[in-house]
Amino acid sequence: MFRDIEVDAHRRFLIWSRAGVWGRLHEDVLHRLDDADLLDLSRAVLDSAHVRAS
User: How far is Cα 17 from Cα 24, in angstroms, rounded to an integer?
Assistant: First the structure.
């Protein structure tokens, strides 16, 4: 029974990932934190592995 749940959860995760759900969710959380003046970017980290070189 648990195997079916794992397979379904993984399938949904892949569908949501391909649809960009996680990126949009992350942006929404950041906007909400910023709107509530709770976002502190004084210790931000940039991962250049995800930034295309020009």
Answer: 10
Global pTM reads 0.64
Tell me, what's the pLDDT at 7? 93
- Segment 23-54, tens digit of pLDDT: 999 999 999 999 999 999 898 887 777 666 66
- The domain in which residue 26 lies consists of 2-50
Give the separation between CA 29 and CA 39, rounded to whole angstroms: 10
DSSP 39: -
In 3-state terms, what secondary structure has residue 24?
Answer: helix
Interatomic CA distance for residues 46 and 15, integer angstroms: 26
Structure tokens at 51: 């930034």
Longest CA span, the chain: 49
- Count of the separate structural domains present in the chain: 1
